[in-house]
Amino acid sequence: MCVESVVAAPLDALSVRFRTSEVLSGKYTSMWQYGRSKLHEIGPRGVFAGWGLSLVKDSFGYAAFFATFEYVKAQAYYSFVTKYYGELQGNLFSPVLTPKLDGTGPIDIIKPHYAIEPTFLMLAGVAASICQQVVQHPLNLIQIVHYKSLAFLDSQAKMDQPKAAMLRSYYGAYRKTYEQCLVYARRSAGWRRWLYRGFLVTTIKQVPSTSAGLVIFELVRRRYGSEAELVKIKKDGYDILLM
């Protein structure tokens, strides 16, 4: 996440300072020229202003996403399969359980329906997107408030002030951000109401694309997979056959 934040910092700096009027005025012939000029204007200090807040948002957001995704995709899926198909153990006509003999006795092999795993992938994508938004949505609002002070920081950076003075300016900007957020929270009758304002709409926009992408990826992998990719997972005394 640290490397990602460093790479994304120039793009974040441009998106925050982007002004359509500056591009349409004819001063810049292309977006590339506008980007180079703006980055040169604000300098490295301006590029990485607010980088700490971005790092916290991305780190915790993606940690929540992948932790939830891997848990639902793997542990929740295996638990469901063993519980659901385990009840069919006495059914002689069930095609999902095949006895396998080894040195200690028979072990049942569960071959789940091909659509169950993609379904859990979709559920994992939904749950992961929601958990990620729980972390990132409030931090996005705080980040927007913090970026409002970037114009002042840009002017300070142009003056080529000493490093100690700039650090004090950055610290003051974070403190000002907290004070401004406190005002917004009081107007909204509490931190939770303000921080999660618009949470549902933002989450609904993100969930379908994430879930659909994961399901399509899994279906393509299954379509062009080979027998060599068969994997068996041991769970609760069963061998779960994966493809």
TrEMBL record:
Any Pfam family matching the protein: Mito_carr
Membrane topology value: Multi-pass membrane protein
Similarity section: Belongs to the mitochondrial carrier (TC 2.A.29) family.
Transmembrane segments: none
Gene Ontology molecular function terms on file: transmembrane transporter activity
Subcellular location: Mitochondrion membrane
Annotated source species: Alectoria fallacina
Keyword Nucleotide-binding: no
Main subcellular location: mitochondrion
Keyword Zinc: no
Keywords: Membrane, Mitochondrion, Mitochondrion inner membrane, Repeat, Transmembrane, Transmembrane helix, Transport
Name used for this protein in its record: Mitochondrial carrier protein
Cellular component aspect of the GO annotation: mitochondrial membrane
Start and stop residues of the Solcar repeats: 1-75
Alphabetical list of PROSITE patterns matching this protein: SOLCAR
InterPro entries from the UniProt entry: MCP_dom_sf (IPR023395), MCP_transmembrane (IPR018108), Mitochondrial_Carrier (IPR050567)
